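=== RUN LOG ===
request id: a7f3
mode: sequence -> structure
chains: 1
length: 635
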Amino acid sequence: MSDHLLELLSPARDADIGIEAVKHGADAVYIGGPAFGARAGAGNEVSDIARLADYAHKFHAKIFVAFNTIFDDAEIEQARKLTWQLHEAGVDALIVQDMGLLELDLPPIQLHASTQTDIRTAEKARFLQDAGFSQIVLARELTLDEIQRVRAATDPERCTLEFFVHGALCVAFSGQCYISHAHTGRSANRGECSQACRLPYQLEDSQGRIVAYDKHLLSMKDNDQSNNLRALIDAGIRSFKIEGRYKDMAYVKNATAHYRQLLDAIMDEQQQFKAASSGRTTHLFTPQPEKTFNRSSTDYFVHGRHHSEVGAFDTPKFSGEAIGTVIRVGADWFEIDSETQLHNGDGVSYQPVTNKGANKLAGMRINIVQGNRLFPNEMPQDLTKGLMLYRNRDQAFERALEKESAERRIGVSIALRASDEGLCLTFTDSDSISASVQCSTPVEMARDADKALATLQANLSKLGNTDFIATKIDIAAPYFVPASVINGLRRDGIAALVVARETNRPRLQRTLPVEPPVPYPETELTYLGNVFNHHARHFYQKHGVQLIADAYEANNTPGEVSLMITKHCLRYSFNLCPKEAKDWQLKGVKAEPMTLVNGSERLTLRFDCKACEMHVMGKMKKNRVVQLSQVTGHD
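=== RESULT ===
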């Protein structure tokens, strides 16, 4: 992708959601195929992906398929065949984690390095560029300075930098979390994550004292880079990714519309940038990302580690927008102190205080709204005066998104001229792609010139059932032409323009790897390298890696190891960081291990202060390990 193009990349759980993402302004959509995507519950048949690609390509938007699990040797041939099927279906790029794929006979399809490849350094980014990746998804944990260093080390004409700007945050460095596999046999690297990070835990210090009780200590707030888009562009990001292949239609419409409007405003100001696809979207609602699923928001580490809390410790669920406090409680109703206009059918949540003092999210549906008096479908027993209420379903907003909520049209200029054969009609779109059609008809001048021009203009502008909108109509003279002739010419011209746009649609080209193969930044790979098949092993050997351990999923990594590596630090969250200590009582405090407790489960936390990382330690549970054949083929 050229360095002047800005790409809004939206998720799709299925083809219908993907079509709406394009309609709402996405320049590209990423979606899971029938296997090997890192979201097991978000797979799609190749035929559905082909349908999505056909729609997206009308706007020169791209379709990327998440192909980002690691494969065992028995899956390699299936994976290879599927890449060809996806290529034939019109897919523009594959999002890849397993380097073994690069050793196969792949179709001429562009490859993107998944976030699962854990790109945190300029050296790793440069290696992946030189190995043949045209777009790389940077780690969510990077700062602006670190992104700039990656950009300086890579070639913007060969490799596009992609960054998550919205949605759920995985607490671990992507591709570096093994808790799910260790405890349940369900591997995150194979699309089966059990999301242990969203569970409640008790936090104990090295002496067994409780620091936090029954909190979701590994659960992150949701990512929101709305205020950082200009800074990210300056740092070198060109693809802006929305998380959410498990999310529903309303979320994708809302988030896509929100970022489409923000990026359009930036491009209006900085006209050296252009959208990476065609057409302009008109939204028939006002996007409000806080109204669809989120756990409150954070811009994470883009501006470095700071004291704004990144964790969603109280609940991993969507609590919604604050609407007021309970002031009276009746038998089947309650009243709130609120200026928010509520509607019948709204969803309301709250956090009642339990006997143990832990907050748990509860909710109800409001059947009837009478001013500030609300009648729920079922009156909760733990609703008390003083509780803060949140709206997690805005019925009116949801209903607006259930309707047609956006239009996307490609601007065209239309020119009508007399020709030797009769009349010539030319359409030229906003990408400067043209198509002309002619008809053999006698050309006469109309007696009433103004009326003739107005009639011609009205008939030529009738593009309502197409993907185009007339932005300029140039009629050489007041021709007298029957409406049926003009309408037929217009329909033929649009059909010819559609063919011309497909003929001239930019195709993503596969980047050839640098020869001879460039060395990998390290000469040794531990289980963290996720090498799970002999093709991947050969890839790294070819690039100079001398010692290569098996992936954790091979079930032969002994003893206690890091099951999760994260930049999120619980010592920092609870003001126990030795580097941040200012109080005299904390001077000299060492980053001693801590423990996370969930029932009988105990996980040791070790702190690498030099790298500013937290490691969640643990062992493989032999009684929980399942045979890999049970998950083979899942994405």
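=== NOTES ===
The longest helix spans residues 249-269.
The CA atoms of residues 84 and 569 lie 43 Å apart.
=== END ===
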